[in-house]
């Protein structure tokens, strides 16, 4: 692959990652200089494309994406074998011949699958916050993250980059209401979040569910979606009926004695552990029961593994 080949980035990301083409370059020096160890030289490296050894790049510890489709990676690897890597990765130089990935982990993984030894890269200087922000923005804009991964990325940018929702919207080119809707997904019960992550329900279903304040009602509607394959419009209608009081979730009209704070804490901890809505019923004298609902055979097997069954 020729080192003179030009590479292109998307307009938005290109503007985010670009440095001045003359940054760090002395007159007469090459853009792709390397020292004896194969590391890009500082002169001409920053802001230009260099070729660095792939085994000198460590992954970004701030990578927000948790799962990569292995088949898609293999397809990209085959494309890289035939055409080369069209879009460089972005790294920061850690010193000497060591680099840390800022963005492009999917391309890096696929290049390793392809068996190449050098990879084109933009070399930048970035502190940890800048690394996190750039990695999050690149993934949000350029990868097919599921809605929960997007929501988690948004929350990380707010928490760790010290920005508000409006500033976040500006940086990821989304309006504030869209950002807010994603963040509200993280307030749904763990069972529903897992279903969104696993594409068992759509973002449209999720947007309807977040308009219901009561967690038990959310679980009831969620179960109705799965059992009856409800469309988004049907779910929106059911939500309106519940909010207007013309429909009640099963069991909502039954009188149950509230459990104590201590039992409530145990119930919440169990719900978090099993990623499902645990229900505890406690009678006078300490007798009671614990109910662990499951959604499918796979979900039951997951719970049994947690119980070390």
Question: What layout of secondary structure does this protein have?
Answer:
Layout: H1 11-17, E1 49-53, E2 57-58, H2 70-83, E3 89-95, E4 98-103, H3 105-114, E5 118-124, H4 128-142, H5 147-161, H6 165-172, H7 176-184, H8 190-197, H9 203-209, H10 215-228, H11 232-244, H12 261-274, E6 279-282, E7 288-291, H13 297-306
Parallel strand pairs: 2-4, 3-5
Antiparallel strand pairs: 1-5, 3-4, 6-7
Features:
single chain, 309 residues, Conserved hypothetical protein from pyrococcus furiosus pfu- 392566-001, ParB domain, Arc Repressor Mutant, subunit A, two-stranded antiparallel ribbon, 13 helices, 7 strands, disordered N terminus, Chromosome_partition/occlusion
Please tell me about this protein's structure.
Residues 1-39 are annotated as: Disordered. Belongs to the ParB family. The protein has 309 residues and is an alpha/beta fold. It folds into 4 domains: 11-126, Alpha-Beta Complex (Conserved hypothetical protein from pyrococcus furiosus pfu- 392566-001, ParB domain); 146-184, no CATH class; 188-244, Orthogonal Bundle (Arc Repressor Mutant, subunit A), CATH 1.10.10.2830; 261-306, no CATH class. The chain is built from 13 helices and 7 strands. The strands form 2 sheets. A 5-stranded mixed beta sheet has the order 1-5-3-4-2. A two-stranded antiparallel ribbon has the order 6-7. A hairpin with a 5-residue loop joins strand 6 (279-282) and strand 7.
């Amino acid at each position: 692959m020729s080192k003179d080949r030009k590479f292109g980035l998307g307009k938005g990301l290109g503007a985010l990652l670009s440095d001045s083409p003359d940054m760090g370059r002395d007159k007469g020096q090459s853009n792709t200089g390397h020292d004896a160890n194969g590391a890009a030289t500082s002169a001409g490296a920053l802001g230009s494309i260099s070729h660095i050894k792939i085994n000198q790049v460590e992954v970004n510890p701030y990578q927000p994406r948790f799962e990569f489709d292995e088949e898609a990676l293999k397809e990209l690897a085959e494309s890289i074998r035939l055409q080369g890597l069209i879009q460089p990765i972005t790294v920061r130089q850690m010193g000497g011949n060591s680099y840390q990935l800022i963005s492009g982990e999917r391309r890096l993984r696929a290049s390793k699958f392809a068996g190449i030894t050098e990879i084109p890269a933009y070399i930048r200087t970035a502190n940890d916050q800048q690394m996190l922000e750039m990695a999050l923005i690149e993934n949000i804009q350029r990868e097919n993250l599921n809605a929960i991964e997007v929501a988690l990325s948004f929350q990380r940018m707010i928490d760790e980059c010290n920005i508000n929702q409006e500033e976040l919207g500006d940086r990821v080119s989304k309006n504030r209401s869209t950002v807010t809707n994603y963040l509200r997904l993280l307030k749904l019960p763990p069972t529903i979040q897992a279903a969104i992550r696993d594409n068992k329900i759509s973002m449209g279903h999720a947007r309807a569910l977040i308009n219901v304040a009561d967690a038990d009602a959310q679980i009831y509607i969620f179960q109705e979606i799965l059992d009856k394959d409800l469309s988004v419009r049907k779910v929106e209608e059911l939500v309106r009926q519940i909010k207007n009081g013309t429909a009640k979730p099963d069991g909502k009209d039954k009188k149950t004695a509230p459990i104590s704070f201590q039992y409530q804490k145990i119930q919440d901890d169990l719900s978090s552990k099993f990623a499902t809505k645990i229900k505890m019923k406690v009678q006078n004298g300490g007798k009671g029961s614990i109910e662990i609902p499951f959604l499918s055979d796979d979900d039951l097997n997951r719970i049994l593994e947690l119980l070390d069954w």
